[in-house]
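quick one before i forget lol
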Amino acid sequence: MLKTVGCILILGASSCLSLILGRLGSRRLCALAEIKRLLVFISRNIESFLTPVGVILSSYHSDYLELCGFSDAMKNDGLCAAFLRGYADLPPEAEELMINFSSELGDSYAEDEVKRCRHYITVLEEIEAVEKARVEKNRDLYRFLPPLGALSLIIILL
């Protein structure tokens, strides 16, 4: 009886682990898309209205970024601080890139800021393509490896 309960617990935990691993890649892709939207928003506001960066950041709204706490940190402490705290759940290379971007934001003329935003959007699109390929490649691995490991452990225990 205890072996059966233990086996069920092991199988359940491994299934939960496979779900968590599978969603991690999706969250990173969603975070990349939202940060790209933020950069487009910043670029358009600087280009069209010459809006100051602080006003742009306080007027930006994203449900995903609010759920992870990034929007509040961005509005209260600034964009660089929000990226430094890791609220956005970005891949490491994108996070480092965005820390560099946010530390430089607002230091130059409008044309240079727009060019910088477009450059970082292009680089984020490249990172997003690599991340999509990685997620697709590892999706089956994340889905099946933990339950198979659990089944192996159950066979050994029985």
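fyi The chain has a mean pLDDT of 92.
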